[in-house]
Amino acid sequence: MTSDSTRKAPRHFAFEPFVLSPDRQLLSRDGVPVRIGSRALDILTALVERPGEVVSKRDLMDRAWPDAVVEEENLKVNMVALRRVLGDEAGAARYIATVTGRGYRFIAPVQTVELPGFGSHAASPAARSGSLPTETARIFGRAQAIEGVRRGLDEARIVSIVGAGGVGKTTIAVAAAHAAATQRADGAAFVDLAMIIDPQFVPAAIASALGLGVTSGDPLSGVVHALWRQQKILLFDNCEHLLPAVAAAVERLAAHLDGVRILATSREPLRIRGERVHRLRGLECDPSEHPAADEARRFPAVELFAARAAERSGYRLTDGDAPAVADICRRLDGNALAIELAATQTAAFSPVQILQMLDDRFRLLRLGPPGAPLRQQSLLATLDWSYGLLSENEAALLRAIAVFAGTFSAEGANAVSGANPAEAMDALSRLSSKSLLVMDTRNDLLTYRLLETTRAYCLERLRVSAEDATVRSRHAEHMCAVLERAATDWERSELHEWEASYGHCLDDLRAALAWSGRDDALRSLRIRLTAAGVLLWNHLSLTEECRRHVDEAVAQLDAAGQSGTAIEMHLQMSLAGNTLFARGLTPQVMSAMHRALDIAVRLGNVDARLRCLRTIGACEIMGGRNDDGLRTLESCASIAATVAAEDSSAARERENYLAIGELFVGKLHSARRRLERLYNPDARDFNDSRLVRFLVYRNVDLGSVLSHTQWLTGLPETAARTAAATVDAALKTRYWFSVSNCLSWACPIFFLSGHHDECRYYVELLEEQVLRHGIGVRRPVVVFYRAALACGQAVVPAESIDDLARGIEEFRAINYLARMPFHLGVLADALARSGRLGEAQAAMRAALDCAGTQNERWCVPELLRIRSSILVATGRAAQAEALLAESMTMAVEIGALSWRLRAANDLARLWQLQSRTADARAMLRQIHGEFTEGFATRDLVVATDLLARLEKSGETASQHEWHALPWGGLHFGSART
Question: Which of 74, 231, 438, 829 has its CA 20 to 30 A from that of 685?
Fold first, then answer.
């Protein structure tokens, strides 16, 4: 097998406190990922690769924009962003120096390092999505609270920080989690629940934050498995609107995960057993009426006001203003967000004027619930006051953008508000300057977001306005347009870039679907949204969520007047694929695919017709209908030949399924040639979306099937290398269905080669995928091969035979009948070796009948060999010899050299018993000589040992005792392996 040392090692550059991993597109600071645009990252990489050298502006622009001509201004903008991330200050650069007229130079010491655990999984955006936010701003007056929460996490399994909106719960929680994570081997993860509207998505949000796919209806099972025995902090932020669902999830996790500590922020406690509540009050305020500036600044509330005012307007606190500022902080009850909002107004008003306006607002406030505590009314009053200072256009825009669940672009703001693009951009800038909006950079695109408290206030304003339905309709239409554009970009983008651009749309998609589902008049919009969201759900491995929404949309097609349309065709195809992966080959799968095919034919959509035929053919093969599957796939090929050239990935998909069909019906050399023509063992671009079709990376699939044809045709060592390399490649894709699929093919390769330790490793890896990502359709593979390995012991455990039978029944339950004859043969072998010969004969009859019904000839030589061993055990050597001869003849016919060797081993020993040593030696030597590799694999080791014994002069069979081998053959006791 290929050693990891032969592969190119990932590069990591360390310059304290940062680590840059270009291959992972990741910059981290003190182990925490730092948000940085891809262009800025390319520029940084170019500089770090040549520390101390002057890198010209042209070189940097060519590196960051290799396929575009850009102005130098683009480089300057990204350099400013990069320096901001690194913390370089003007005139005092620590990392990047400007060389006037020439370019830039990286001036900090750089080391190339190897980092444990920096594998391909950690590189994925999904895996990084749950990282704690980086601490950037100074925290005022909260050191004692942070330490208290940190200590609480040492002493209790569940700690909740409870306080009013805007008081600083998230800030304290993040700081405490960072501190506590240093004492935890597995660090901390951040689960932001602010964007979750529907409680049912709480488990999915937790799983997604940990980088887990959500393919089943019980994502928390995967979370429990992923965190089993981990020492980790889980921070659940903004729980108040989802309390029952969060409380149920937290209780379940706490009950099963001893090493996990859960920290939650909420306006109310979770009210569950074992919860330790830390109530967070406002910042301490100066109680005196006439403090001087220096005295007032000793209190964190005033210190925060002065700092934020200085940042926004250059304001400096004076002795004359100090009493008014202290009073503002007291009136706002030390609420951090309210103080920051007030401080931003120093650009237009003096502190005395701000205080007067706040007093007026408190007296006039009517939005708050009756009897609300002052600390809640203080923030509400501040928001209401800040809102009241806005122009009509600014207020309308702020209400409209509140419908976004998370980040949004200027384009999105313009779409939901209906404003002029130039006016919207100007208003966004002004709202940001007033701290009502947060600006950020996502994938080199300027994005915006509302703080959750501000968003809740604005949503209430939107609700009581007459614009609610209009704005939400615009939002749903905008999300349709964005996700439809995403489908176009999918074909021409690298996957990590595509995910960076569109991955954040999930919560907005959910919100738009929830809103459109409340009114039957919006059926058509909901159906369109569902169709547009399919690609995003599938990309994020949210298979069960996708299946449920698509199923609901299909049920609404008639009522919406969209039956028989192109949109139904695509929804039916999606329903079939998601149901197949989530629930197995149910009747609904084939029904949906045939409906899609009928529509494709009626609409004259050749591409969709070909895709339907490919999927139907593949399903027929999975269901054991090999002849039907091959006919379907061959008709697909005939249609493709009559039209313009297909895209290469679609053709590869069809060819792969044809090869699988050929493999199963025993056309092994044809299958191998087909696969070798298409398979690229050196493919490394795992971000090319064109090579991916419905969560399956085609080169991975090709390698998986190829490894089987290699083993069967006498290349066991090559097969093991191909299987191992394919698993390694699959893991890099992060497409968990593709990973689980290739593992389900790898397990039998190592089982058949006698590499039981390796097989056990791949079985455990597959079980990890099944449990972590809820891929239940692969569970029977785990059950079967774990039992098969246990049956390889000298004494076959009865419970392992039961597990073999259970695995076979689980295959039947999901209608995965491919390989069923082989599975029954392994069961028959285990029964025979445990002395249950009658049951073994019944299982073997079932295996051969199944092989005949399904025309599954690839394993028939092995079934005949196993049957011969049962006959030997019952004293019918002559019949056994005839079956072994039949097995070898058929192995030659289908090209299965490895099966032929197994039968030859058994026949040589049988002839040796009959004193036909010379015949046995000649026959076995000829077949052994046809192998060019794999001499350390089990069957060749047995053959080599047996030849050596046959060569010994005077050796007779009477000197030896027969024993059953773990794989169903017969062997002499003195030569057992």
Answer: 74
Residues in the chain: 977
Tell me if 11-112 shares its fold with 125-279: no
| Spatial CA neighbour of 301 closest among 149, 142, 144, 435 | 142
| Burial environment of residue 325 by CB neighbours within 10 A (0 to 12, 13 to 18, 19 or more) | buried
The letter for the amino acid at 871 is: L
Per-residue pLDDT at 457: 87
- Residues 24/119, Cβ–Cβ less than 8 Å: no
The dihedrals phi and psi of 911, each to the nearest 5 degrees, come to -65, -35
What is the mean pLDDT of the segment spanning 341-349?
88
Q: Are 214 and 204 in contact (CB under 8 A)?
A: yes
Which tokens go with 846?
A: 């079932």
Structure tokens at 630: 């091959």
Q: Find out whether 240 and 268 touch, Cβ atoms under 8 Å.
A: yes
Among residues 183, 205, 185, 203, the alpha carbon closest in space to that of 194 is found at: 205
Question: Which CATH number among 3.30.160.70, 1.10.10.10, 3.40.50.300, 1.10.10.60 corresponds to the domain 11-112?
Answer: 1.10.10.10
Residue 650's pLDDT is what? 57
d(CA 345, CA 528): 44
Helix/strand/coil percent split, the chain, to 5: 60, 10, 30
Residue spans per domain, the chain: 11-112, 125-279, 293-389, 888-977
Tokens of 696: 């399956």
Architecture of domain 125-279: 3-Layer(aba) Sandwich (3.40)
Instruction: Give CA–CA dist 486/480, Å, rounded.
Output: 10
pLDDT at 94: 81
Rounded-to-10 torsion of CA 57, 59, 61, 64: -140
Collect all residues with Cβ–Cβ distance below 8 Å to 163 and sequence separation of at least 6.
Answer: 169, 267, 279, 280, 281
Q: Environment class of residue 907 by beta-carbon count within 10 Å: exposed (0-12), middle (13-18) or buried (19+)? A: buried
The 3-state DSSP class for residue 30 equals coil
pLDDT at position 772, please? Answer: 78
DSSP 346: G
Q: Residue 490 has which token pair? A: 């999918």
Q: 666-717: per-residue pLDDT in tens? A: 999 999 999 998 887 765 444 444 444 444 566 788 899 999 999 999 999 9
Reference 550, options 569, 525, 531; nearest CA is: 531
Single-letter amino acid, residue 194:
A
Amino acid of residue 231: Q
123 contacts: CB under 8 Å, gap ≥ 6? 21, 23, 24, 25, 26
Structure confidence by residue, pLDDT tens digits, 234-273: 999 999 989 999 999 999 999 999 999 999 999 889 999 9
**Cis preceding linkage at 17, omega within 30:** yes
Phi, psi of 276 (to 5 degrees): -105, 120
SS3 label, residue 135? coil
Cα distance between residue 805 and residue 817, in whole Å: 14
- What angle (nearest 5°) sits at the alpha carbon of residue 639, between those of residues 635 and 640? 115
Per the CB < 8 A criterion, the answer to whether 659 and 705 are in contact is yes
Question: What is the secondary structure of 763-824 as a DSSP string?
Answer: HHHHHHHHHHH--GGGHHHHHHHHHHHHTTSSS--HHHHHHHHHHHHHHHHTT--TTHHHHH
d(CA 827, CA 116): 42
Query: Which is higher by pLDDT, 735 or 864?
Result: 864
Both tokens of residue 34?
Answer: 């730092």
| pTM of the entire predicted model | 0.73
- The whole-number average pLDDT for the span 298-326 is 92
pLDDT category at 961 given cuts 50, 70, 90 is: very low
Q: Please list, in sequence order, all residues whose beta carbon lies within 8 angstroms of the beta carbon of residue 412, skipping any fewer than 6 positions away.
A: 401, 404, 478, 482
Q: Alpha-carbon distance 829 to 609, whole Å?
A: 44
